[in-house]
Amino acid sequence: MRVLKSILVPAALAALLAACGGSERVEDYVPTKLVAFGDELSVINSDGSKYSVNALKTNSTELDCATYPVWPQAVASGYGLVFPQCNSSGVLTTSAEMKAVAGAKVADVVAAVQAYQGTTGFTRATLVTLMAGQNDILAAYADWVAGTLTRAQATAQVAAAGKTLGTLVNTITASGNGGRVLYATPPNIGYSPFAASEVASSGSEDRRTMLRELTAAFVEAMRLAVTNDGAYAALITADQLTVSMATNTNLSAYALTNNTEAACTVTPLTSCTVATLVSGAASSGTTYLWADAKVPGPNWQARVGSAALSRARNNPF
């Protein structure tokens, strides 16, 4: 069955994805607005397409953007909030804003947040989703491969970006007077088809090792920078989810049939639909971990979204 509006996250996986800390909730947190910042892993385009496998309406070539949601969309849906990019009927009141941009690096996300703060601003009723870093990691990796950065320099560069993103979380929450933030680590690109192809083309396993080291450096610096007692911000460890899904030999544990290859056969990724998948994907974007060589697909997105929604509902925001 191709429809995947949500995936239940087992208790053990929820523990893996969630950060500890925080006091008990006094009253339910109900945001009136959601704002998504980040890169292509959070984007819904104006036509409803995503950087993932896109669902189609039954017996149609028209995109079904409500199915196979990106993770901020899953969170928004849990609160009855709607992105205008996925409101094709036009009858729903849109109460979510898409500020994520494909290709964005941490510096771009910082600029987007600062611009939003300067015009609209955040309140406690604003729930912010934030995921970035993969493009910083890939850029540093490319410079290391080209020889323009040493291993130490590339690692320091991504660590600085991670620290900047963590500091941005603190800026948004503003000691309790600003928004509440669900911030997710980027997927671990060292377990992607891209990493495997880099090893194959170079003959060096160190290519894959470097991608994993850069991801780890970014994530560690980001997590250390956030003042996270659970009251204002909540962490979703999407990097660890990637590793778990990519290394688990029991694929059925994640409803997968393949965790090493890309499902999509076309570029750009926004053109990928359930009608343009490899034969093994069986017209379902949910059975493959990876949409393309670098981007996880709807199964991963749904699990990140489910974990994030659980954090929002259970943290003392």
From TrEMBL:
GO molecular function: hydrolase activity, acting on ester bonds
Coiled-coil intervals, chain numbering: none
Signal peptide range: 1-21
SUPFAM superfamilies: SGNH hydrolase
Source domain of life: Bacteria
Stored Pfam families: Lipase_GDSL
Keywords: Signal
The keyword Transmembrane helix is assigned to this record: no
Cross-referenced InterPro entries: GDSL, SGNH_hydro_sf
Protein name: Esterase
Taxonomic lineage from the root: Bacteria, Pseudomonadati, Pseudomonadota, Betaproteobacteria, Burkholderiales
